[in-house]
Give the backbone structure.
Amino acid sequence: MLRRVLLAGALILAACAQANDNPGPVADSVHQMATLPPVAWIQPADTITLDNVSQIQLLGRLDNPTTPSTIFDHALSPDGTLLAGLDHEQIIVWDLITGQTVFNLERREEITRIFFSADKTELYAVELSGLVTVYAADTGRERTTFRGIDEYDGVLTYDPEGSVLAFANRKGEVRIWDPLERQALATFTAYDRPVQRLAFSHDGDRLATADSFGAVTIWDWRSRSALAPLENEQPALRLEFAPDDSLLAVGSPQDIRLWSSADGTLQRRLSTGPDAMDLLAFSPDGAQTVNGGETPDMQVWDVQTGSLIARLPGVGEDRLAAAYSPDGGLLLTAELGGSVSLWNMTAMTENTVNRADLDTGSARIYAVDWTSDGLLLTLFGATGSVYVWGIPPQADPGS
């Protein structure tokens, strides 16, 4: 269980002295933040776990080296040592070991998504037209471009381990690329209408597609064959494979439907109610799902039984974000205008969930993430800064 200090909700040190407890409009906050000195960078000493989470503190702050602006997309390198951010003016890459800027370059206006290659040597920037620009991840030098698919409509997904990109278009076509090799691997027609959602399985062998009318299909994309057409009957707002790929969770307007990815049979239906599907995620061990949206609470479900385990109160309604720790013991949540919180996901009942709010000094955190090694939390502020948290080196009791 979480330590007593976590139960009391007082586990975290103040994030930084310059944070504003009552931030004004974003433009005013940005102007003020640009004049503040940088925070000294501290390297993490240990993975964040339930046993040491009471020691967590701010390790550093990452700022845009030019004009501060909200980061609307980001990517962590697979080894958790680099962070790429995409704001309204710049593409920025930071070194999470030193806290230094690796490079920053002017963002072309149409670039909306960014990804690291599996070997972290390249960065892929996707434009609204479907054009992909390949950059060297250590220098920002442009290497080449390729077009993901014609008539691209903003629907794509990425397998970070296999470094494979899937694009869909308004004609119902899907194309899969190996961007590292600059090679299109497969193209097929999923539907005779636009594809609305895509999701890779964790092993990278299957691809789930959905249209706007409730058709969901699991494909062996290499052979271009449909493995399991699902009669979902409702629009798919979210698609998420379980960590072991045995289930596909389809988030619909009123529920989450858990389908067997082997034969396409419906296993369980979780009744979420309306407006609860802005976010859907499995826990790392696949035992839980969490979801949330415009409702005042997030919901935690038991995947095996389909029963509601708990509600996370006060987390919802406005720009909700959540991320499990790699070991699944903690859930990090944030809501723009609300709290940033850590939850103990190992000891929950329908009426009791242990929670601690991080004292970030600002209520304008709108996105959160963990590095894959569990060493760092990244909190993205609306004014453009990224606040990095972790376990600092501990003083020697004998010193």
